[in-house]
Design goal:
By secondary structure, the chain is an alpha+beta fold. It is 41% helix and 11% strand. Strands 5, 6, 7 and 8 form a four-stranded antiparallel β-sheet that branches. Strands 1-2 form a two-stranded antiparallel ribbon. Helix 2 packs across helix 7 and helix 3 runs parallel beside helix 7. The longest helix has 20 residues. It starts with a helix and ends in a 5-residue tail after the last strand.
Length: 220
């Protein structure tokens, strides 16, 4: 009886301590990017959630925006015009440089280290708590691991996965550059303005509760 109880206790402890999902520390490039991809997309029960595939598609689309702003700005645009910064740093694209912020909830401290806002960290911890409950991985774990997996792979080897907006050349009567270079919460009153062009639903411009924007081919 004692042996059986001990074995059962050990088994229950193993289950309780199972880690189905994890995020890299936000102090690392992969962790900082992973936090962004997860924070900007909806999970089950949250506003904007449609399906796992929709959220995963949104994560990949956001990664392509980050990549485009970092090293694929189309001629004749400058990085400053598109991203509001001039940087070769992944952290700079996410957090901004100096007093210029880029992604809400992501910044740098006085020493230039990447910082994630407490409210963002609270959500990430809550998602991890849900993902690591129970006896087997579920939707939360799969989504967290997908987002962190994208970020880790990007830092290690660059972009992967198809860019669904790469082939865009015209939206209505407007010639565009292709690719997305901005995203915002999918509400009509959120608009980046300038030469950004809203990608319509007919071109899958709404993903994971976000609206994606490309650029005019010829700046105005």
């Amino acid at each position: 009886m004692f042996l059986l109880g001990a074995l059962l206790g050990a088994s229950m402890t193993t289950v309780a301590q199972a880690q189905f999902a994890r995020l890299e520390p936000e102090s690392t490039r992969a962790g900082y990017l992973g936090a962004l991809l997860v924070n900007e997309t909806p999970f089950p029960g949250e506003r904007g959630y449609v399906s796992e595939e929709d959220t995963k598609a949104a994560m990949l689309a956001i990664l392509w925006v980050v990549h485009g702003r970092l090293c694929a700005v189309p001629t004749p645009y400058t990085q400053w015009q598109v991203a509001g910064v001039k940087t070769t740093s992944l952290t700079g694209i996410i957090a901004g440089e100096g007093d210029r912020r880029q992604c809400e909830g992501f910044s740098r401290d006085g020493a230039g280290r990447p910082v994630v806002a407490p409210r963002v960290m609270e959500r990430l911890h809550n998602l991890l708590g849900i993902a690591n409950r129970g006896g087997q991985p579920g939707r939360f774990a799969r989504l967290l691991n997908f987002g962190q997996g994208l970020a880790t792979a990007y830092v290690a080897a660059g972009i992967g996965g198809a860019d669904r907006f790469a082939a865009l050349r015209r939206i209505g009567s407007v010639e565009v550059t292709g690719r997305a270079f901005s995203w915002m919460t999918d509400k009509d009153y959120y608009k980046p303005g300038g030469n950004f062009v809203r990608i319509p639903d007919s071109d899958s411009g709404s993903l994971g509760g976000n609206r994606f924007f490309t650029l005019r081919k010829f700046p105005q």
